[in-house]
């Protein structure tokens, strides 16, 4: 069978090669609206090609023989579908380029699912069909979600435009990442950080310790003090405006629940000692619906993060979880936020604040703030700067 791929780009071609059954399918052309790619050839082909495959403008599609057009522009599928229909291309010949890694980027509900064609075109057709139904379900749910109430009493991330990642990465003038150390925390507080993010790694000698990627996995040649959560919370407890984001390191939901239970026990002890506002100073990172539900049910303020989160690439699902559990913020990978501005649009449309990680270049910081990101994690940028 002969296929045309709409969208002449490296990512789209890679996605097509991964998904399509090359034994029974052949890509005969790319099509693209970008005239710089098509070169306005006077006749089909015209010497313009990508990976040896001709690139043609959409108005040339009907000049060649093909069985299906697979649209690789997932965000703008409906616009391209309407364009192709207006050119006289039959509906049954048009479908998205289904790739398991990118199917969640589809912005539209796909009503006409040709299951026979999908099973013929793709090597994993049956699994793709299951995913389409899931994507349709989320896209429909997203469209009917009511935005988070703007008056919801929660932390205003706009007041914390910069967050110290792993307690801050600058240690005695050296750029050392992920220390989560006492020295890093003291440096962050000295530099007037009002919000600190840290990694709760586990327990040691009956205390919750903050983990260090360098300390745990790599040989290092500097000395620093391993920090306990107890010490960190006591150091910020004097100022209700200082906040701490806890990234609980876990492999299973049971690990997450166990560590969060121990955090709760520590907080209750601090409250008994007179630190009555300490719970209000803590934000728990959650990673999926199960961890979010558990944390919310135990009265923690949460931020849903896409770090190692299966929902992360499917930002509409993250928005659905936030609206369901009244979570006001999502932590989003900075590279994804810069590359896919629609990620930001989906969240902002539901009154969800966006926090991005991890940014150390001022140009990226400015680009994210202009795009609507409220707060940014950084190792080396400083609030006073």
Keywords:
single chain; about 20% strand; alpha/beta; about 35% helix; 6-stranded mixed sheet; 14 helices; 9-stranded mixed sheet; about 375 residues
Write up what this structure looks like.
36% of the residues lie in helices and 19% in strands. It has helices spanning 10-19, 35-38, 77-86, 115-121, 125-144, 182-190, 213-217, 229-236, 253-272, 289-297, 315-325, 334-339, 341-348, 362-371; strands spanning 2-6, 26-31, 49-50, 53-56, 68-71, 94-96, 162-164, 170-171, 174-175, 195-204, 207-210, 243-248, 282-286, 301-305, 329-333, 353-357, 375-378. The termini are far apart. Strand 1, helix 1 (10-19) and strand 2 (26-31) form a beta-alpha-beta unit. The strands form three sheets. The protein has a nine-stranded mixed sheet with strand order 7-17-16-15-14-13-12-10-11. A six-stranded mixed sheet has the order 3-4-2-1-5-6, sandwiched between helices. The chain has a two-stranded antiparallel ribbon with strand order 8-9. It has 385 residues and is of the alpha/beta class. The protein contains 14 helices and 17 strands. Helix 4 packs across helix 5 (125-144), helix 5 (125-144) packs across helix 11 (315-325) and helix 9 (253-272) runs parallel beside helix 10 (289-297). The protein is elongated, with a radius of gyration of 25 Å.
């Amino acid at each position: 069978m002969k296929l045309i791929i709409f969208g002449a780009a490296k990512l789209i071609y890679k996605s097509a090669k991964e998904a399509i059954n090359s034994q029974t399918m052949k890509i005969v052309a790319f099509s693209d609206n970008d005239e710089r790619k098509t070169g306005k050839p006077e006749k089909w082909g015209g010497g313009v090609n990508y990976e040896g495959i001709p690139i043609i403008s959409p108005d040339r599609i009907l000049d060649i023989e093909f069985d299906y057009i697979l649209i690789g522009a997932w965000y703008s599928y409906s616009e391209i579908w309407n364009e192709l229909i207006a050119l006289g291309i039959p509906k049954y010949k048009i479908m998205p380029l289904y790739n398991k890694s990118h199917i969640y980027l589809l912005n539209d509900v796909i009503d006409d699912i040709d299951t026979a064609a999908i099973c013929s075109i793709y090597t994993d057709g049956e699994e793709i069909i299951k995913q389409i139904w899931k994507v349709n379900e989320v896209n429909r749910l997203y469209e009917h979600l009511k935005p988070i109430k703007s008056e919801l009493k929660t932390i205003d991330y706009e007041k914390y435009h910069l967050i110290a990642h792993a307690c801050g990465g600058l240690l005695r003038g050296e750029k050392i990442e992920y220390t989560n150390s006492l020295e890093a925390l003291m440096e962050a507080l000295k530099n007037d950080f009002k919000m600190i993010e840290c990694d709760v790694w586990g327990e040691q000698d009956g205390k919750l310790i903050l983990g260090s990627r360098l300390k745990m996995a790599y040989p290092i040649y500097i000395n620093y003090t391993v920090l306990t959560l107890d010490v960190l919370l006591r150091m910020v407890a004097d100022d209700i405006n200082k906040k701490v984001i806890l990234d609980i390191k876990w492999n299973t939901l049971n690990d997450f629940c166990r560590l969060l239970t121990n955090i709760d026990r520590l907080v209750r002890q601090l409250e008994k000692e007179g630190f009555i506002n300490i719970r209000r100073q803590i934000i728990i990172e959650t990673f999926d619906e199960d961890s979010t539900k558990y944390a919310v049910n135990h009265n923690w303020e949460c931020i849903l993060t896409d770090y190692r989160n299966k929902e992360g690439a499917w930002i509409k699902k993250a928005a659905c979880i936030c609206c369901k559990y009244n979570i006001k913020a999502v932590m989003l990978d900075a590279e994804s936020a810069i590359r896919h501005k629609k990620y930001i649009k989906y969240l902002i449309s539901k009154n969800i604040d966006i926090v991005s990680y991890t940014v150390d270049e001022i140009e990226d910081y400015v680009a994210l703030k202009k795009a609507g990101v409220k707060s940014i994690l950084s190792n080396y940028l400083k609030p006073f700067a």
